[in-house]
């Protein structure tokens, strides 16, 4: 019975937060105090992110709310940057970064510590987002196509290093198992 009441309180809080933020934004827009093209979606995304984080951190709800809150919050800021003049064509890799951070936060909260099944995908998603950001924000003078056409052999090098690491770890495990069996 108490959990149903808590859920109703949470939904009420979520609705109140969204209504308040959207109302303030619309009032600022209609009075001419603030004019941001496309401000509605980022504000709504940030509101949902804030409520999601509140549900997880303050109310102790599921870890899903933490990952959702972090991912939506960072994505909301990216969308807000887009509304301020940075196009989504420029900022989209930052959404990947925010999703990777959200996935890491979710896995850490859900399992009460980092787990390899969440850490590795999170790192890969964040690194890919940062890599694509180099091209989106024109940090590198090359286009992605030119970069890939020059540096594609690095995939073989990184693959070989990964295989050597896997081989090394496997050899150590087998060596430790043999020594345990001998004693």
What does this structure look like?
The protein is flat. The longest helix has 29 residues, at 2-30. It has 183 residues and is an all-alpha fold. Helix 2 packs antiparallel against helix 3 (63-83). The protein has two domains: 2-141, no CATH class; 153-183. It has seven helices and no strands.
Tag the structure with descriptive keywords.
2 domains, single chain, 183 residues
Q: Number of DSSP helices?
A: 7
The radius of gyration over CA amounts to 23 Å
Whole-number mean pLDDT: 77
Order of helices and strands: HHHHHHH
Structure summary, number of beta strands: 0
Biggest sheet architecture: none
What is the helix fraction of residues, given as a range? over 70%
Structural class: mainly alpha
Q: What is the end-to-end distance?
A: 58 Å
**CA-based shape:** flat
Briefly characterize the structure.
By secondary structure, the protein is an all-alpha fold. It contains seven helices and no strands.
Outline the fold blueprint:
Blueprint: H1 2-30, H2 40-57, H3 63-83, H4 88-110, H5 116-136, H6 144-151, H7 154-182
Helix pairs in contact: 1-2, 2-3, 3-4, 4-5
């Amino acid at each position: 019975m108490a959990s149903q009441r808590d859920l109703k309180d949470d939904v009420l809080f979520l609705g109140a937060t969204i209504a308040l933020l959207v109302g303030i934004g619309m009032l600022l827009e209609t009075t001419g105090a603030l004019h941001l093209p496309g401000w509605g979606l980022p504000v709504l995304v940030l509101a949902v992110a804030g409520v999601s984080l509140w549900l997880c951190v303050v109310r102790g709800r599921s870890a899903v709310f933490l990952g959702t809150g972090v991912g939506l919050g960072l994505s909301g800021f990216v969308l807000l940057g887009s509304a301020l003049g940075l196009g989504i064509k420029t900022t989209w890799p930052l959404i990947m970064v925010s999703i990777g951070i959200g996935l890491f936060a979710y896995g850490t909260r859900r399992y009460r510590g980092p787990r390899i099944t969440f850490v590795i995908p999170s790192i890969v998603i964040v690194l890919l987002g940062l890599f694509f950001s180099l091209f989106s924000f024109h940090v590198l003078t090359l286009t992605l196509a030119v970069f890939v056409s020059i540096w594609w052999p690095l995939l073989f090098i990184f693959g070989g290093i990964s295989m050597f690491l896997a081989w090394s770890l496997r050899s150590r495990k087998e060596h430790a198992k043999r020594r345990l069996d001998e004693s």
